[in-house]
Amino acid sequence: MTLFLGHDPGGAEKNGVAAIRVKSEALEIVETATVLNASEALSRLENYADDAQALGIDTLLAWSPKGGRACDDALRRKYGGNSVVAQNSLYSAMTLNGAIVARRIKMPVYESHPKLLLKLPAGGAIRPAYDTAIARAGSDHEGDAFVAAWCAAMGHSRE
């Protein structure tokens, strides 16, 4: 099975991390955790970096110098809802901590939108594992990191 990592950046004690193994659509959760900050998230993720293929992050990995991002506009047009937030409306801890980890980790990195994916039929296959992760943690940070890792796996394998 192939290893993939996930990160849900946030403020103090709101950084979710995940490591999962995937083969086809079968998966094994190796670890999920909620950590203090981006430094701790990076340390946890680096423990797996030598074996991992890619990292999924629930944050922006590209910004538009003016107006909104075309990719966000396309997602909102296609799926509606408010889970894809405009870049200028986001809290700094999420965008900064995500950028720090993305810049320092030495592997392919994929942007994810866990809350949107879970609303779609494609998210149904991973919903039970997501629900288990958030029930255990008491918050959605580990669940979002798990979904980000799944998105990296699907993106990296072009599924």
TrEMBL record:
Xref: InterPro entries: DUF429
Name assigned to this protein: DUF429 domain-containing protein
